[in-house]
Write the structure tokens for this entry.
Amino acid sequence: MVIAEQLTRTFGNHVAVRDVTFSVKAGEIVTLLGPNGAGKTTTMRMLAGLIPPSAGRIRINQIELSDATAGLARNAVGLLTEAPGLWERLSVRTNLLTYARLQGVENPEQRVADALSLVDVADRDSDTAGTLSKGLKQRVAIARALLHTPPVLLLDEPTSGLDPASARQVRDLIRAMRLDGRAVLVSTHNLAEAEELSDRIGILKTQLLALDTPAALRGTKDSGRVVIELEGTAEPLEIAIADLSEIPGIVARLVGGGARIIRITPDRRSLEDVYLDLVGVDQ
Amino acid sequence: MTFSWSRVAALARKDAAELIRNPGAIIPAVLMVFGSLFPAFLILVITPRLTGETLEESGAFAEGAAAAVGLIPELAGLSGNARAQGFMFHQFSLLLLLVPVVGALSLATHAVIGERQSKALEPLLSTPISTVELLAAKTLTPFAFALTLTWMAVAIYLLGAAVFAEPGVFTSVAGVRLLVMFVILGPLVELAALLVSVIVSSRATDPRSAQQISALLILPITGVFVAQLMGVVTVGTGGMLVAALGCLVVNGALLWVGVRVFQRASILMRWR
């Protein structure tokens, strides 16, 4: 559904994104994690056909992105921007109707009603957009991204600034989009959210530093230690190992020495540890 | 993708709905209507009534009127105070050209900057709308609004001539010269103001500087008006047509530039 190959984007002398390659399949959620200025929004904008890459190729829903095909490709993409970007003086319905007409959807009135029902905001359709809470605005913005039933969704910081309840509702909506078979690319700073939502996570800092499933990302970064809790001792033992295959030998020696083992845990690192290792602690 | 009027209409309709709810955009344009009408009525109606001296009696106006007959033939059928009044109504009508310019600048700037202020530009640009369609939509609504205001101002002006001036003045003022000024030249001047405003907005990083640069368009009109009042020039119907032709050429060039500078990536990065 989405294929990015060796994407690079420069602004003058500044390289915002360098040589980034990844793909997002139908029914998959891929999250781009990275610090501020890492190039997440620039990558999203390139994929949405808003800014052309300085180098590299993009395919959206089988369409090779170019000046000539950008309009078609944009029809295949639903973009949720970091700020909801609603026209605050207008009603929710007028906001969405305008977009439905710009997207050229058939029966726009019905489509707007359907999209608002999907995000559970149908009862607020006559309200002026400026009077809605941030969570409701974000749900309206999601409805806007879904109006033309795009196969690809690009969600830039979808839960940024939302309270926990609103953020959960938005995450539930994103999961529902995966179930609909859409390719979903999310950008976020929120590690817990990325881990909870994503099939795969890409860690971006100008370049794509890693791209894998959350479990594999954690697994690729063992700390090289094993933690052993023993009966009768307050502090667990931490033993450095080169490989997990050393554990049976360690257990045998401890038991042979009369120790009673309660639990043995390979010290796997959290996604946060992996992230900070890759992007640098100062981030 | 081919040009789609339905996309232009959808966005222009939205802009109209927003403008109606935005007094900050409409008030300067409406104030300009009164601002351009007031000096004329002050000199042509209020002052003579307060001083008891007609325009003809003040001398300079009568001389100016006599000298202008060659360029403004509509004055030929008038005499005495009516001719002086007709001459001054013709002179002050140029001030009404500020209405489409100021109206266009105020309304277009809001139509453009409003997208940035509501952070709606990025989602808007992510739709299939082309930059040419966006340019057309962003020009259409302010154009229609400002032109309506201009014609309302002209209607009030003519009503004033009909009610307060001497017999014959109204028919002299409501002639070919006024028709050329507000049906041909006015819309062309307005379109130039709109295109300059949109082009500058798409390149400037600061909205205020965009407004200030665009506002420079007022200077030529004000300059000609002042020159007319000082008796340096009198712009007749022929002069209006030449100005309209010049405006047409300028608009062609502005449109050519506008389409080229109004690019997605450029306005997305600059309109923040």
